[in-house]
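[recover] target loaded
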């Protein structure tokens, strides 16, 4: 993360709000002055050694600092981890998403880790109220297992989490699943070193070796060796994951969630997986960003196409993202030699229609949100591409079935007006006129519910495939069709939508229309731009100046002679989308900073009321205990706080789309 002035102030404010003034002062010094050693921190923060060491311990515990130990001088250098600090804003969304996608037990583990930082598994078991957790490796008695996790009765949190984490063995099983899903990663001594420093050190070492190599084969072998070492340095925390994957395959989230809360805590002793209690784990924000990106793309498809199609798309994204560890690839590691590694390669990102149907929630009514028209009402020019794809699928199915029981192309794409699928029109009661039934998309006909559900699913996939945003790409015919997602293309379209919304909000519809014209046609002079925009030249000049002040467009002056007179100079306007994408996050950081600063001022105004409602004897009984006057002030403050935080979260979504996804 590139640290700008507003980004550094925002991160400092987040640290101050969550961890207090002492760690925030140290973090602010590291953001402003860069990497520092202990004597420099004593001098620049004005704190005594005891305070500095206490603040550093808090920051390191929550992975907000990098540190490097120089073995020759035996000195430690500290550096601010602004990327992890900025993720404090996304803690709530990460917890909610883990609970939705993976389950409530996993959500509780993630919530505790986000509040505790990186911890040993034994300490995490104690946080859940475990008794005798240190002896978990030495006993597998069923009665001790059920009683190993009991609430103490002193803390409300223990009572709240008791239904989800039933035993120490259940906790180990949940942690093992989260490690396999890459939501958690193992921490060692090298995990607190800045990855960029490690990569630069490896590249410098191989640059010295490459200077002495003359042959092209030797340079190629050296480049492959460097790529392997860079990959090993990045994936050093995945050794336990690979070990767990070799013992048992990665569990499917959909099937596991159907039994969450019952079967999860009652697994047989033969299937229990016990981890080393001294293993230190923490949240892997890179994988969490992948799940957040899937959620954002699902909502994007919901806005563009519809609710049912977006749920199908969400299932596809979940299957495609199983081997995707991060949103943004590093060119140095995932570049020329990525084919040597089997994680996230192109052939692994292909999903068949039958796989999507198997992972899709059975309660989704696939017969909804699909328009149905007769053959005569379909423009053949528009549907030609879909018919060609469907014909390839039908030929493949007929070849497999011998042409006896396979569905024909006409039946697949409603080429006949009397097709059975034409009659699949659900009414308000969820049943059809006639003999067909579409409860939960299970259409009963002569072909059976399974064939009809596959066909309905394919229609939703074709809707995603033929959208102008190119949500899905058809890439094969196996399993009733193979599909993949080109994340670069979809995210480019989503970024353009977000940037258009910002331009329209700042400069209006005319400004948005002018920027779209410049994006489509490139550089244009004022005369050509006025003709294409159908605007008068004075009006156009005023709007273009407004766009230039907002840094949405730029102008290039091309003089016709050496005098450089204004009436002898051509002005070419252009819109640089890449530059705008790089500059917008810093402006959004400034807006988010202002929101949080206003919230801090508002909290200071009602600090007496907030101190009163935070008392243990008042929580949950605010309206009964407080007078109407103070309760109204408290309610107004909560409403204002919700608006400011909601606006900050919306701005964070824009930052994620423009920079992180």
């Amino acid at each position: 993360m590139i640290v700008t002035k507003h980004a550094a102030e925002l991160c400092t404010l987040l640290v101050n709000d969550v961890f207090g003034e002492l760690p925030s002062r140290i973090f602010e010094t590291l953001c402003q002055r860069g990497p520092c050693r202990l004597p420099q921190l004593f001098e620049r923060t004005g704190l005594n050694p005891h305070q500095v060491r206490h603040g550093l311990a808090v920051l390191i515990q929550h992975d907000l600092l990098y540190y490097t130990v120089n073995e020759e001088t035996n000195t430690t250098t500290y550096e601010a981890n602004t990327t992890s600090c900025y993720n404090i804003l996304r803690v709530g969304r990460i917890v909610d998403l883990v609970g939705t996608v993976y389950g409530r037990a996993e959500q509780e583990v993630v919530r505790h880790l986000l509040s505790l930082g990186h911890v040993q598994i034994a300490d995490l078991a104690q946080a859940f109220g475990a008794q005798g957790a240190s002896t978990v490796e030495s006993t597998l008695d069923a009665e001790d297992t059920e009683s190993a996790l009991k609430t103490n009765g002193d803390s409300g949190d223990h009572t709240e989490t008791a239904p989800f984490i039933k035993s120490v063995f259940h906790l180990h099983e949940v942690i093992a699943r989260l490690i396999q899903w890459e939501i958690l990663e193992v921490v060692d001594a090298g995990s607190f070193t800045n990855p960029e420093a490690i990569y630069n050190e490896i590249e410098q070492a191989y640059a010295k070796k490459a200077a002495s190599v003359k042959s092209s084969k030797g340079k190629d072998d050296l480049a492959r060796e460097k790529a392997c070492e860079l990959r090993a340095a990045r994936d050093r925390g995945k050794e336990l994951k690979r070990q767990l994957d070799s013992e048992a395959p990665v569990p499917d989230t959909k099937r596991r969630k159907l039994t969450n809360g019952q079967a999860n805590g009652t697994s047989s002793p033969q299937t229990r997986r016990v981890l080393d209690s001294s293993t230190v784990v923490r949240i892997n924000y890179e994988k969490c960003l992948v799940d957040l990106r899937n959620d954002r793309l699902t909502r994007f498809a919901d806005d563009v196409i519809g609710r049912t199609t977006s749920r199908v798309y969400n299932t596809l994204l979940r299957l495609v993202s199983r081997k995707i560890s991060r949103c943004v690839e590093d060119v140095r590691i995932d570049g020329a030699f990525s084919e040597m590694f089997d994680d996230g390669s192109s052939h692994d990102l292909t999903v068949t229609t039958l796989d999507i149907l198997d992972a899709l929630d059975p309660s989704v009514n696939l017969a909804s949100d699909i328009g149905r028209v007769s053959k005569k009402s379909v423009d053949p020019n528009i549907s030609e591409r879909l018919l060609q794809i469907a014909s390839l699928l039908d030929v493949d199915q007929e070849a497999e079935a011998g042409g006896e029981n396979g569905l024909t192309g006409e039946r697949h794409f409603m080429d006949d007006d009397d097709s059975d699928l034409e009659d699949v029109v659900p009414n308000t009661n969820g049943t059809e006129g006639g003999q067909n039934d579409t409860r939960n998309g299970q259409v009963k006909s002569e072909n059976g519910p399974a064939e009809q559900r596959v066909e309905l699913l394919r229609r939703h996939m074709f809707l995603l495939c033929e959208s102008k945003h190119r949500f899905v790409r058809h890439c094969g015919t196996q399993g009733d069709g193979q599909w993949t997602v080109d994340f670069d293309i979809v995210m480019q379209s989503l970024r353009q939508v977000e940037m258009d919304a910002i331009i329209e909000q700042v400069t209006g519809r005319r400004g948005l229309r002018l920027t779209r014209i410049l994006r489509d046609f490139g550089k244009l002079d004022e005369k050509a731009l006025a003709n294409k925009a159908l605007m008068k030249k004075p009006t156009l000049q005023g709007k273009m100046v407004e766009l230039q002040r907002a840094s949405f467009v730029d102008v290039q002056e091309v003089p016709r002679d050496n005098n450089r007179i204004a009436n002898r100079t051509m002005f070419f306007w252009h819109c640089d989308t890449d530059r705008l994408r790089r500059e917008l996050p810093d402006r959004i950081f400034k807006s988010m900073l202002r929101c949080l600063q206003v919230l801090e001022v508002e909290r200071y105004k009602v600090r007496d009321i907030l101190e009163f409602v935070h008392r243990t004897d008042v929580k949950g009984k605010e309206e009964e205990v407080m007078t109407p006057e103070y309760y109204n002030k408290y309610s107004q403050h909560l409403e204002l706080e919700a608006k400011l935080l909601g606006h900050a979260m919306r701005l964070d979504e824009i930052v994620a789309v423009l920079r992180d996804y």
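[recover] notes: The longest helix spans residues 487-521.
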